[in-house]
UniProtKB/TrEMBL annotation:
A UniProt-annotated Pfam family: HTH_animal
Organism: Parnassius mnemosyne (clouded apollo)
Coiled coil regions in record: none
Entry protein name: Reverse transcriptase domain-containing protein
Xref: InterPro entries: HTH_animal, RT_dom
Taxonomic superkingdom: Eukaryota
Every Reverse transcriptase domain range: 116-428
Amino acid sequence: MYVVPSIEKWISNIKRFMNLWQFLSKKNNNKDKQIEKYQKLTIKSNAKHPCQRRNETQQPLATDANNKQRTVYNLSKETLDEPTIKLLSKGLNFAITPQKIPYEEIICSVEDCLFKNNIGKEDLEAIRQDISSLLRRSSAPKLNLPKNEFKALYNLRNRPKLTILRADKGNATVIMDTSEYNFKIQQLLSDVSTYKKVKIDPTTNTLKTTTDLIKKYSEKLDLDVNSTIPSCAKPPRLYGLPKIYKPNAPLRPIDSYQFVSEIKDLHLADNESMVSFDVQSLFTCLPIEDCISIVTRKLEDNNMPTEYAVLLKHCLTSGYLLWKEEFYMQVDGVAMCSPVSPVVADTFMEDFEEKALLTAPVNPRFYKRYVDDTFTILPSDKVTAFLNHLNSINPKIQFTMELEANNTLAFLDVLVIQNPDNTIGHTVYRKNTHTNRYLNGESHHHPSQLATVGKSLFQRARGICDRKHLAAELQHVEQVLQDNKLRVPHLRHSDRVKPATVERVPAVLPYVRGVTDKVGYILKRASIKTYFKPLKKIGQFLPSVKCHIPLQDAGVYKLDCECGLSYIGQTKRSIKTRVKEHIADVKHRRIGKSAVYEHVQDRPRHYIRFDRPQILAKEHRFLPRMIREAIEIKKHPNFNREDGWVLPSAWDPIINKIKSKPKYTTARLQDTVSSFCINRTKN
């Protein structure tokens, strides 16, 4: 369970602060995995015994009879039909074929890329004309879902009693009763030692404090104020990921390879055991003041400005969240979502383990830690004493112990094996509840992305497995790829080195089979590499588990008038804020400043639908936002005073193809805000 990042993300992006990040972190922390490790979703009464072994067998909580791979866990009281199970078994990251070509996104991406690359004028025009001609001839690809599954997808959208989300680990899909899901979240928030309910939204105050700190230290820390100060703030939103089995280390291939290289030549003595120690809920139990003191000391020792510690303290003490229109402050620990939390946790643990090893009754012969998970080799009769010693150092930092079972112990994604001759073997570790579900070969992803799945699995097998276990692992990978409808022969030999190309700013395009891949070939002529992203995944069609905050994003928007014309605008702040400014312009009759007011003034019986602003595109980047606004201005009948960004004429045929027609209302529509504005205009 974790909170979406906000204020902390802005501070972490400071250029000079990244130097501190790299200094403090000895390893490449994997944020996307660490934020998922929220131990408190499980009810406290079900907490495991500190010495419980990780390798014990655990059955899934629930499975569908037809779901042999256990990829779908129906924990709800409702029964799901076969098409729904088949749909969800594809995974929430299964990309669905777009039903229409996203011309606007393609044009924005191409123009953004061409603008950033130094290409001759003639070549630019040739590229635009070729892409425009291609788009005029193209059509959307065939749907990659059967009709009954596509129907099941839309039926799931209309079942508010169900909450569908991915599991905390294992890439399984979980269906829960919404009432039970809400109960678990509320139970977590009821912990008054960690969360405190507040009456007002802390976003404005946090934003002001952040801005003041950046301005105060910008000169000394060499900060670019304009690019650092946040412009579109919204509160972090809480949501949970259900645990369908005991916690386990996620896939961390780089650290796993390093770990394997260090253990492969070890020999265990007859009186030694392999033991893993894991911190209970590290992030929520970190003592913030201790963390700040440690960081400050390291800054002083390395002659770095201690003002970084002030910024860090602001990040760590400003944690709050939104749940069901109520706000909560995090009063203890660090936010799981914060980009600085993993490095702060690792810094604290470095200091902690230094103290622990210096004062330990017995030092482990081998000691390896990754954030909160530790692999050690200790004398068998000293294991409990070492655990008690760790738990005596800081009352907030408590460890659990996992003993080897059947001469094996898992660490990261490596299964460490004690051979009969006391040498160490190693292979890939999977829980018995692992789904073996990866990106489905029928998903509407670019072929290169599908190929990456097999490449990474084969690479992991060769990097982790010893000779004894490699053949079995490669055979397993081939079977898994076949089950996921991926091409095995091509994937197995896909790790050859590619030739170097000219360094240019790449293009990022929405993937539409037979369309944008051909656009990529055209851009390749100018030595521009193209990356592809899927448009819509199954998970994006389903209701979000996060609280909806309307109009809180930056982007392009539309305000309709009942006459059939519209105003198209763009903003780097929240669209909600910009709409309020339009309302104020009309109320205060700001001639020359507002095209909206001028339209109302010239046509006093027209009504602007301020109560129904439409978001045409969410976009935080400046240039793509300006280009998208210009496209939308050309598409829609409007009363804008300017056309915005100047678009090359090569795109005119495409924009004419997707132009909207004026929509006149059949009855006079009137909203409260517009009526008030117009009445003020008359007086």
